[in-house]
Design goal:
single chain; transmembrane; transmembrane helix; membrane
């Protein structure tokens, strides 16, 4: 009986090692909460301070550069927070955050994000600002779905949610900033809280 238990324990340890080697497990709930908070603050700045109101496909906005800089600042803060927190979590587990799995994860996310970024830039340069929010949500959702192959299943679920929000936003273009705040803000905060209580407590 004891020998059988030892075998089961060995199998569990091997399975755990294989899981760590094939999945990127250094994602942090706090990074999600911070990213969502940055997005909500950025949406508030765009709406309240910059008076950004894209309510149609074609939109002429003279102060667009400030909105784009705000969005870039939100993205930069979110990336730095995610990288630092993932590194902290990996060090705590005595693992490297930069390994073959994390590289595959980044590549799988980079392809839709890069293609989407170019498309959105082309549309904005042609005055189609109203499509920026739904397309950022849609391509980000696709990137998360791809990333779900290399990390926990909840990331793929969040990808589906982002894609759904992007498609809904395409029907209601006048609410782009609201959908953007829900997708990048509220969804990230809820995901981060779930991650913290599900995996980090």
């Amino acid at each position: 009986m004891k020998e059988e238990q030892d075998y089961l324990k060995d199998i569990a340890e091997i399975r755990s090692m294989m899981e760590r080697s094939s999945k990127f497990l250094s994602l942090s709930g706090w990074a999600g909460i911070l990213a969502g908070t940055y997005a909500l603050v950025g949406a508030w700045i765009a709406h309240s301070l910059l008076k950004f109101r894209p309510d149609e496909f074609f939109y002429s906005y003279s102060n667009l550069i400030n909105v784009l800089l705000t969005a870039a600042g939100v993205l930069g803060l979110a990336l730095v927070s995610a990288l630092l927190d993932s590194r902290r979590k990996a060090n705590k587990r005595e693992e490297s955050a930069w390994n073959a799995t994390s590289r595959r994860l980044l590549v799988s996310m980079a392809v839709p994000l890069f293609a989407g970024g170019i498309l959105i830039f082309i549309l904005i340069s042609n005055g189609l600002i109203g499509l920026a929010a739904p397309l950022t949500l849609l391509f980000y959702g696709l990137a998360l779905y791809n990333a779900g192959h290399f990390t926990i299943k909840e990331v793929r679920v969040m990808g589906f949610v982002q894609m759904l929000l992007g498609l809904l936003n395409a029907f209601f273009v006048g609410y782009g900033l609201l959908f953007w705040a829900i997708g990048f803000g509220v969804v990230h905060v809820l995901y981060g809280i779930y991650m913290h209580f599900r995996y980090e407590r």
